[in-house]
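Dear Dr. H.,

I hope your travels went smoothly. While you were away I took the liberty of generating a structure for the chain from your last submission, since the lab meeting agenda had it listed for discussion. I wanted you to have the full record in hand beforehand rather than looking at slides cold. The sequence, exactly as received, is reproduced here:
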Amino acid sequence: MRINEPNRIGMINAYNKSGNTPVGKSGKIPMGKDKVDISTEALEMQRQVEDPNSPQRREKVDQLKKQVEEGSYRVSSEKIAEKLLSFWKKI
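The corresponding predicted structure, in token form, is as follows:
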């Protein structure tokens, strides 16, 4: 078997050079800035959510808590199935 260029160091030098990162005057690597973009859909959802401290929401939450404590809170299995299907269809 013949091996071409057994003393080839060109690839080693290229590998070593690829690890170099730009360093500023202070000797530290410059860091980027973090940025958050909120979609228009998320902003719309945020506008639609009721204020958690509103009297209507507090009354509804208290009513649901009472039903759960009494054991009279029931959810339709059809509603659960619809929500599950719509969730899995989005994925």
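Two observations you may find useful: The chain has a mean pLDDT of 79. The chain is about 55% helix and 0% strand.

With kind regards,
E. W.
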